[in-house]
Amino acid sequence: MFTGDRSGDFLFGSLHRAGFSNKAESSGSDDGLTVRDVYIAAVVRCAPPQNKPLPTERDACLPYLVRELGLLAELRVILALGAYAWDGVLRALAAGPRPHFGHLAEARVDRFTVLGSYHPSQQNTFTGRLTPEMLDRAVLRARDLAGLDPP
Prior knowledge:
By secondary structure, the chain is α+β, with helices and mostly antiparallel strands. It has 5 helices and 3 strands, in the order H-H-E-H-E-E-H-H.
């Protein structure tokens, strides 16, 4: 996921600057990139037409995310990349009323803090809606919320 595309370059660059990855970009599964203290998951596990998943696709994939979250016993902070991920994560956590998404929005659900960030899509990065500095702030906030030492 995010490997070999501009969204991935944007994301892995931020993860690298925050000390979560050994490289700033990923070109393929055998490129040597490794991440630590990070798990990347998806709300929807397919590439739907025009990259716009339907609620039925989200709902069909949600049990997989629920299971992953249950298996990650040490997980405390979830950085949701985009409103769709924010909504999906809160659904997977069976959160009551779902707080509104926004960049750097935070929601506490059980043992988790869900942190929102605009998605690093080209639509957001080319228009300046999400800048490298904005994503860095979100990734560093996630690091801080997790109680990890600064890079």
